[in-house]
């Protein structure tokens, strides 16, 4: 494009390219790469978008060089260039967004700087891998990285134990590598403290890429599976099931509707309203149990919640149910 | 397109449309809607993709009618139609994927059925909202829905308490509605058992849509903010900070590198290798502490991990560090 030279400020675009198939990139992600003078990224991600890189300056980096990538991006942007700093999945999920801001702030950058920063969201590995195996997420879920290159092991272990106890669906990122082989065993050990050994697990390698491979297994066999740095491990919650080769976590409709009887609403429940065991109903139950003589400690054990939380909750007045607004509820 | 009539099986495409801006839809999501004869979705999502719907049969549903949407999709697909069943964000995250499979299985459908099912991943609200406020995710995170319409409150409370204790970044979905006003207060109460009152919180309403609004606040003021059904609440972890109007969660580089001294590697640490407090280093420390006389209970309290886990870990032989493979580590 021929234009009179007009000096412009550079720009850093933190692009989440999704799982790596061009079909699964957003329009903004493609446009950002098209707009860029310089594209920086881990060599594997650069290859995934090779078709979009003609005529651009490419800076390929190795793993563990995230800070270098951010520094290179800032240097190029300060030289007036438009930089696409690419991450697989979503740039904000174990990607380049965090490290880039850390480097920018360290360099004295502020949002008033001529160099502007844009983050372009994408579907993270947990979303892409989930889409390939069915509907394992559906309900409350977590992402935990088993990489201890930057995080102490006790922090990771504490997180694994907490979410196993609280029955989340869990996606393990960076589950295993040539050097880190034991972390996945420790994760399994911690999960088995709380979960059934036959809890469904799906392992997706290279989702939406040429060497895609999907394995269904169970918690007690998880550590024996072929897992590497290109794998995402999805551990179901206590309601997750596998049927006909699809892993599905229920949303909870069975709590309200009799799914076998044409979806009739169960007694005591109402469509569009909180469950009878939702917050307000549960508070009434709690009050009644306490009034009937159950101690705080008994209630805490029964509901598996902290005693001080039970105590504070009982001391809080139960307000009249808020007037329904025009807004429908989900 | 004029073609000789060839009877084809219908198809259900579960499409995650992302935050709602056409720029942030993937190519596959757009193509799926273009391909569809019938588009089904919650009325708000139908409006977001209105430009793509010319000539198609549209079925608009209200909130809480997720099972109805899935039933309508199956009916249309059995009649030979291509159906796009749309969800905002990612169809697998509190979206239509789970409910659709539940309805399909209930109807006797299997993957061998002529009606095929495809899930098209998209960026979920937590990714989009995070992209608008900086880099709040970066490290281990969770999504929890505060809706108790299908989930008992103690289950939700237990999850909130667990992730607050284990220091996750947390995205709250369905945080508040006209009827459900107290759940956000309970969430705050549970978080304050573990987290500093000044923990950064970002509240993003209608991200990437016309009425987008972003508020930064703190944990102790979170419940006073304007929160509704179009809001996603992002609660930082104990290292998350807000600087220059951007919310950033560190990845942990400061554990390994002296960020103020040009990124020099700290003593005892090595680039590309586990931290000295990573699994193998921590196991050595644990063995040494135990050999020096610390009891299992003392170690459990010090490292804030379950005593039985400490005991099992001490009993497991520490294998020689696995031979490094060609594969680089992150």
UniProtKB/TrEMBL annotation, chains A, B:
Q: In which pathway does it act?
A: Cofactor biosynthesis; adenosylcobalamin biosynthesis
According to its UniProt entry, the protein's GO biological process terms are: cobalamin biosynthetic process; methylation
Q: Which Gene3D superfamilies match?
A: Cobalt-precorrin-4 Transmethylase, Domain 1 (3.40.1010.10), Methyltransferase, Cobalt-precorrin-4 Transmethylase, Domain 2 (3.30.950.10)
Q: Which GO terms describe its molecular function?
A: precorrin-3B C17-methyltransferase activity
Question: Transmembrane region positions?
Answer: none
| Its EC number(s) | 2.1.1.131
Identify the residues that the record assigns to the Tetrapyrrole methylase domain, covering every copy.
11-222
Q: Which UniProt keywords apply?
A: Cobalamin biosynthesis, Methyltransferase, S-adenosyl-L-methionine, Transferase
- One Pfam family named in its UniProt record: TP_methylase
| PANTHER family (alphabetical) | COBALT-FACTOR III C(17)-METHYLTRANSFERASE-RELATED
Q: What is this protein called?
A: Precorrin-3B C(17)-methyltransferase
Annotated organism of origin: Rugamonas aquatica
Gene name in the database record: cobJ
């Amino acid at each position: 494009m021929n234009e009179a030279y007009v000096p412009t400020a550079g720009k850093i675009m933190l692009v989440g390219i999704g799982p790596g198939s061009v079909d699964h990139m957003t329009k903004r992600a493609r446009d950002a790469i098209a707009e860029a003078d310089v594209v920086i990224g881990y060599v594997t991600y650069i290859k995934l978008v090779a078709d979009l890189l003609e005529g651009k300056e490419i800076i390929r980096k190795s793993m563990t060089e995230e800070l270098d990538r951010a520094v290179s991006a800032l240097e190029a942007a300060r030289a007036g260039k438009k930089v696409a700093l690419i991450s697989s999945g979503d740039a904000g999920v174990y990607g380049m967004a965090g490290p880039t801001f850390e480097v920018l702030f360290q360099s004295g950058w502020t949002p008033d700087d001529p160099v502007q920063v844009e983050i372009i969201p994408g579907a993270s590995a947990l979303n892409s891998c989930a889409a390939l195996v069915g509907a394992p997420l559906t309900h409350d879920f977590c992402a935990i990285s088993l990489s201890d290159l930057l995080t102490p092991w006790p922090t990771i272990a504490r997180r694994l134990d907490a979410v196993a106890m609280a029955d989340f669906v869990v996606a393990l990122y960076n589950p295993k590598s040539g050097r880190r082989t034991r972390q996945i065993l420790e994760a399994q050990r911690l999960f088995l403290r709380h979960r059934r050994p036959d809890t469904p697990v799906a392992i997706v390698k290279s989702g939406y890429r040429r060497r895609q491979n999907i394995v269904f297994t169970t918690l007690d066999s998880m550590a024996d599976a072929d897992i590497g740095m290109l794998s995402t491990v999805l551990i179901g919650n206590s309601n997750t099931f596998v049927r006909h080769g699809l892993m599905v976590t229920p949303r909870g409709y069975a709590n309200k509707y009799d799914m076998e009887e044409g979806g009739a609403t169960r007694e005591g429940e109402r469509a569009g309203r909180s469950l009878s065991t939702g917050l307000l109903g549960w508070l009434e139950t709690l009050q009644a149990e306490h009034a009937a003589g159950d101690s705080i400690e008994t209630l805490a054990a029964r509901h598996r919640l902290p005693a001080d939380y039970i105590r504070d909750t009982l001391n809080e007045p139960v307000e009249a149910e808020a007037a329904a607004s025009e807004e429908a509820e989900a």
